[in-house]
Amino acid sequence: MRDLPADADRLRVLELWLQLSLKRVRDRIADLERRDVERRRGAAAAPLVPDWVVGTGIGADRPRLYVHVGGCRMAGTRVHAVTRDVAARAAADGVEACSHCGADAALGVT
């Protein structure tokens, strides 16, 4: 054991350092495992993404502005989940289909 110090005092210091290092590693592992559990719990509790959404404007009458495929990142926050039939009807009635998610092609209304 030539790689270890020859005296007990330095060995005790080394032992203490190893104990502290092991505690830090175990604490980090526990923290990562806790985060993983929280991430899985959050994913399980997340609301389902609708198949289709219609984006609306601001105001009392809230005009329909865009039809989006559900989950489109361009949809914004003022959206309402709709069925495929409602989305297709809205696109046919002149509501603009989002060019980013290709809602018109997905609906077959080009």
Structure commentary:
By secondary structure, this protein is an alpha+beta fold. It folds into 2 domains: 1-46; 52-107, no CATH class. The protein has 3 helices and 4 strands, in the order αβββαβα. Strands 3-1-2-4 form a 4-stranded mixed β-sheet. β1 (52-56) and β2 (64-69) form a beta hairpin. 18% of the residues are buried. The mean pLDDT is 91. Keywords: Plasmid. InterPro entries: DUF6233. Pfam families: DUF6233.
Number of helices: 3
**Tally of extended strands?**
4
Q: Biggest β-sheet: count, sense, barrel?
A: 4 strands, mixed
* Beta-strand content estimate: 15-25%
Write out the strand line-up for the largest beta sheet, numbering strands in chain order.
3-1-2-4
Instruction: Note the overall shape.
Output: rod-shaped
In the predicted model, the low-confidence regions spanning at least 5 consecutive residues are none
**Proportion of residues in helical segments:** 40-55%
Salient structural properties:
single chain; 110 residues; 2 domains; rod-shaped
Give a brief outline of the structure.
Keywords: Plasmid. Pfam families: DUF6233. The protein is built from three helices and four strands; from the N terminus they run αβββαβα.
